Amino acid sequence: MKYIDESQMNIDLKELYDRAEPSMKEYKTSEYIKKRLTEMGLSYTEAFVTGVFGTLDVGAEKTIALRADMDGLPFDEEGKEYSHLCGHNANMTTLLTTLNVMVKMKDKLNVNVRFIFQPAEELVSGSVEMIKAGCMDGVSEILATHTTPDVEFGKAALVEGGTMAGSNHFDIIFKGMSTHAAMPHMGTDTVTAAAEYIMSCQTILTRKKSPILDGLISFGKINGGSASNILPEEVRVGGTFRHFEMIVKKLIEHGMKVRLKAIEDFYGIQTDFTIHEGTPPVICDKTIVGKLRSLCEEKNIPLGEYEKSMGGEDFAFYLEHAPGAFIWQGVRKGESHPPLHNKKYTVPEGATLPGVTLLCEYLLSQ
Ligand SMILES: [Zn+2]
Ligand SMILES: [Zn+2]
User: Fold this and answer.
1) Separation of 228 CA from ligand 2 center, angstroms?
2) Residue 248: predicted pLDDT
3) d(Cα 318, Cα 144) in Å, to the nearest integer?
4) What protein residues have CB closer than 5 angstroms to ion ligand 2?
5) What's the 337 CA to ligand 1 centre distance in angstroms?
6) Cβ contact 64:133 at 8 Å
7) Are 6-162+282-364 and 166-278 the same fold in CATH?
8) How far, in Å, from the CA of 341 to the mean position of ligand 1?
9) What pLDDT is stored for residue 2 in this prediction?
């Protein structure tokens, strides 16, 4: 597409990469975006600390929203340095480049384009705050892009239906009476209780859920004890569970509570179970994905293969207001590429081109 300014696109990718900032502190990133929007003659509203949204208004009845997330991730253990380990610089670059083309081609547009630059995706709270600020008002469809090492460089990938899982976190405290490790019968054993509980949760997925449905329970934290010969008073564990269907979410929650009650009874301990509600699943609209897929074929945009992912995304909250789709952009050159959130994850120049082309063609096809 002739209006895509590839050299500016690569400048944006690098400039935004160099500004990587923590969630809700994307100040320099926000300044850069506002500068670029002003250069394009687009006005905007500021929302939720560093968020920016606005509309390329051509007076059409329909408005399609495009969303990019803005935050980086900690690069070192102390959280002093930040980097774009999830490639959000690429998502912002895709949106800026698409807007630049649409501004130049606005005479050919039959749809208004709402742009949403959203902070704090990694905290899964940014989208909710942007929606409260009104970024979805009047929007009838929403699209977003994200890079992935699972797809080859130069290709886009689409998934009909669920593409990212619903994600919830939990914390559990096992509380008992400490005792000498050589005299477990004189107190309670919160360590063995926690260990047995962790193992028992996996059969909720394999024995209580239909094997055809997807679901996951992972424990990422376990803390307790101060000496090898003391059974501790308390063990704390934490983790996450994932689902695509509401029935699986309910089944996991119920199963985890039932298992916990059985552990309490057997070990003579108490437990505290807290679920932190996260994001619903990202379910892509089949009609919109169908149109995107046909455009890829018509306009020679190479399509890659992508399976749905158990990762979570707060893009799901926008989909509660309008149907939409998620477009994956490939970064993998050769056999392998570091995974998302890995310290070595980077997006090569040019990886944003398929997403830009597809978004532009989709907007122009309206
Ligand atoms: Zn991420
Ligand atoms: Zn991300």
Assistant:
1) 40
2) 98
3) 10
4) 86
5) 16
6) no
7) no
8) 6
9) 83
Max distance between CA atoms of the chain, in angstroms, equals 81
Cα 130 to ligand 1 centroid, rounded to whole Å = 18
Question: Cα Rg for the chain, rounded, in angstroms?
Answer: 23
Closest CA to 70 of 120, 113, 110, 116: 120
Please identify, in words, the CATH class of the domain defined by 6-162+282-364. Answer: alpha beta
The top-level CATH class assigned to 166-278 is alpha beta
Ligand 1 centre distance from Cα of residue 340 (Å): 7
Give residues with Cβ within 8 angstroms of 262, minimum separation 6: 200
pLDDT in tens, 208-257: 999 999 999 999 999 999 999 999 999 999 999 999 999 999 999 999 99
Which residue, chain included where needed, has tokens 């320099």?
A: 28
Each residue's pLDDT tens digit, 320-354: 999 999 999 999 999 999 999 999 999 999 999 99
Q: How many angstroms separate the alpha carbon of residue 69 from the centre of ligand 2? A: 7
Q: How far is CA 191 from CA 175, 203, 217, 230, 333, in A?
A: 10, 20, 19, 10, 45
Ligand (nearest to CA of 127)? 2
Structure tokens belonging to residue 244: 């695509």
Q: What's the gap in Å between 142 CA and the centre of ligand 1?
A: 20
Find the 145 Cα to ligand 2 centroid distance in Å. Answer: 9
- Domain regions of the chain by residue span: 6-162+282-364, 166-278
pLDDT at 5 over 90: yes
Q: In this predicted structure, what is the pLDDT of residue 94?
A: 98
- pLDDT, residue 76, reads 82
> How many whole angstroms from 38 Cα to the centroid of ligand 2?
26
For residue 313, how far is its CA from the centre of ligand 1 (angstroms)?
Answer: 8
pLDDT at 160: 95
